Amino acid sequence: MSRLARLFGTPDRGHSTLDGFLVSLLQTFENSRPGLTTEMLATGGVEAFFRDLYEKEVRLLREKIGGLTHLSRDEQEELFQRVDERIRKVVVPAYARLASSFTPRERNDFYLTREALHGVERVAWSALGIALGAFVVWAPFIPLWSKEWVLVFAMGGFVLPSLRRYFAFRRYRGALEDLVARTDDEIWRLDLGFMASAWERGAAAGGREAEARNADPEPPPAPLENGGRTAPGERGPRAKEEG
Question: Please, where are the H alpha helices in the chain?
Answer without folding.
Answer: 2-8, 17-32, 38-43, 46-55, 58-66, 73-86, 92-107, 118-138, 148-158, 160-215, 237-242
